[in-house]
Specification:
- By secondary structure, this protein is mostly beta strands.
- The chain has one domain: Barwin-like endoglucanases (Beta Barrel).
- It has one helix and six strands, in the order E-E-E-E-E-H-E.
- It has a six-stranded mixed β-barrel with strand order 1-5-2-4-3-6.
- Strand 3 and strand 4 form a beta hairpin.
- It is globular.
- The termini are far apart.
Length: about 110
Amino acid sequence: MTKPVKKKRYKVIKSGSCEASYYWEGQMTASGEPFDPSELTAAHKTLPMGSKVRVTNKNNDRSVIVRINDRGPYAGGRCLDLSKAAMKKVGGTGAGVIPVRYEILSRG
């Protein structure tokens, strides 16, 4: 008999909207770990490393939870730079830049 899987419960600390882009080139992240485009991670200018953020594509309502492990983006109007895997989950790789809602999460 298998145990039921416990879903992680989060509380929303802060939310907002902006544009998000994505990146896929391998480099070191600001957190010191190698960038892996297949991980569900993102870059943000000021959030603490390790923060969890739910990102929802406003065009299709698909969402993903990412971990902040890098700094950026540095292009105007964007608040998040998602890994390629995270952007793929929300269906935005064809567009390159998408409008998103974001929710900064804490364990609840």
